[in-house]
Amino acid sequence: MKIENANLKIIKDSRGNDTLEIELSSSGVSVVDSVPAGKSRGAHEAAVIEPQKALEKFEEIKERVLSADWQTQEEFDNFLISLDNTPNKQNLGANLILALSLAFARLKTKTEGIELFQYIKNQLPTLSSQLTTFKLPRPIFNFINGGVHATNTQSKLDFQEFQVIPETDDFGLGLSITGEFYRKLKDFLEEKFGKENVLLGDEAGFSVPFQNDEEALDILFDFISEHSYPLRIGLDIAATQLYKEGAYELGGKKYSAEELRKYYLELINHYNLISIEDPFEEEDFESFAKLNADSNNISTNPPDQHESVLLITDDLTTTNPERLKMAIEKKAGNTILIKPNQIGTLSETLKVVKMAYENGWQTIVSHRSGETMDNFIADLAVGIGAWGLKAGAPGEKERLVKYERILEIGQKI
Question: Which of these, 115, 257, 350, 413, is most buried using a 10 Å CB contact count?
Answer without folding.
Answer: 350
